[in-house]
Automatic annotation (TrEMBL):
Organism: Candidatus Ghiorseimicrobium undicola
Name of protein: Putative alanine dehydrogenase
One GO term (biological process): alanine metabolic process
Top-level taxonomy: Bacteria, Pseudomonadati, Candidatus Omnitrophota, Candidatus Ghiorseimicrobium
Record-level Gene Ontology MF annotations: alanine dehydrogenase activity; NAD binding
A Pfam family this chain is assigned to: OCD_Mu_crystall
Residues binding NAD(+), per UniProt: 115, 142-143, 226-228, 232, 299
Any one annotated GO CC term: cytoplasm
Role according to the record: Catalyzes the NAD(+)-dependent oxidative deamination of L-alanine to pyruvate, and the reverse reaction, the reductive amination of pyruvate.
Active site residues according to the UniProt entry: 72 (proton donor/acceptor)
Family the UniProt entry places it in: Belongs to the ornithine cyclodeaminase/mu-crystallin family. Archaeal alanine dehydrogenase subfamily.
Length: 329
């Protein structure tokens, strides 16, 4: 480490430094700190750019346990594929809280994918039935792959059903995920995909409900990961009305999470939300009450997750002498 130099980490370097197992441990620790109220974390800040069909989000955070501040600056521009750019790109800055010095600037895109998958795994660990063996994926993109990898670390998964409007994407998913050595089955409809499943994971950008209440069996757990902006939703609002709903953060969830449309329509109210994930992990509130209860985790993504994963990456890079040093000041 060079005095007052900043470590620069790109995606390829980061991919060699951390894995999903270590990420799950880091995110569970982060949720515990969040539940203990030892985190300074303003709600996600949005900069909407309708003219360019995109937006930016700023996510600042400080936590005593990590002894660092972090800021993630991330965009969402769905039309970027036309120019060969990712729809989502992110940068994370880690700072020393004592003097503000930028310790590290890293790619936040892969880090975000990791921490999101780890959050889903942690939520399911507390809310799904421990014997869950059948997983259904609504969506077959990058995050669906990451979510399955996270769940695979926690549960005795035997079979996975996958549905997406794009069957080419589903077939590619199955080819790429064969190394997990579980049954991977394409589904023709969303209904056939989720029927009889123990865990359902949604990772789409849908603005219309894809899953109906009557398709779900008793005791299912749902990780609703796709809704990340106002107007998006993947679940029938009546699922939320009848389930035990856990959000990551109330303010973010009501603005842009899975619950935003049901709340806007008056189908659910704040009293219908059971807890946030910090309360569950810290155990100030109980998790699953019985085997027949339907549970939902509404994930919008928290800055404390970014801090936890960035701290993990940074420490690994220091130990392994990875990355490049740059003197800004």
């Amino acid at each position: 480490m060079k005095k007052y130099s900043t470590l620069i980490l790109d995606k390829k370097t980061i991919e060699k430094l951390v894995d999903i197992r270590k990420s799950i441990i880091a995110i569970e620790r982060a949720f515990y700190e969040y539940g203990k109220n030892r985190v300074q974390m303003p709600p996600k800040i949005y900069l909407h750019l309708g003219r360019f069909s995109g937006d930016f989000r700023a996510m600042p955070v400080y936590a005593d346990k990590f002894n660092k501040c972090a800021l993630k600056w991330v965009n969402v521009h769905p039309k970027n594929y036309k120019s060969g750019l990712p729809a989502v790109m992110a940068i994370i800055i880690l700072n020393d809280p004592r003097n503000g010095f930028p310790l590290c600037v890293m790619d936040g895109t892969y880090a975000t994918a990791l921490r999101t998958a780890a959050a889903g795994a942690v939520a399911a660990k507390y809310l799904a039935r421990p014997e869950s063996a059948l997983v259904s994926l609504i969506g077959s993109g990058r995050q669906a792959r990451m979510q399955l990898s996270g769940l695979y670390e926690i549960f005795p998964i035997k079979k996975v059903k996958i549905w997406s409007p794009d069957m080419v994407s589903v077939n590619n998913f199955i080819k790429e995920m064969k190394s997990l050595k579980v049954g991977l089955l394409p589904s023709k409809t969303a209904k056939s995909c989720v029927e009889n499943s123990d865990i359902v994971v949604t990772t789409t950008p849908s603005s219309k409900p894809l899953i109906k209440r009557q398709w779900l069996k008793k005791g299912v757990h749902i990780n609703a990961m796709g809704a990340d902006a106002k107007g998006k939703q993947e679940l029938d609002p009546w699922i939320l009305k009848s389930a035990k709903v856990v959000v990551d953060n109330w303010q973010q969830a009501v603005h842009s999470g899975e619950i935003n449309m049901a709340f806007a329509k008056g189908i659910i109210h704040k009293r219908d939300i059971y807890a946030d994930i910090g309360e569950i992990v810290f155990k100030s509130k109980g998790a699953r009450a019985d085997k027949n209860e339907i549970t939902v985790f509404d994930s919008t993504g928290l800055a404390i997750q970014d801090l936890a994963i960035a701290d993990l990456i940074y420490k690994s890079a220091i130990r392994r002498k990875a990355g490049k040093w740059f003197k800004f000041f």
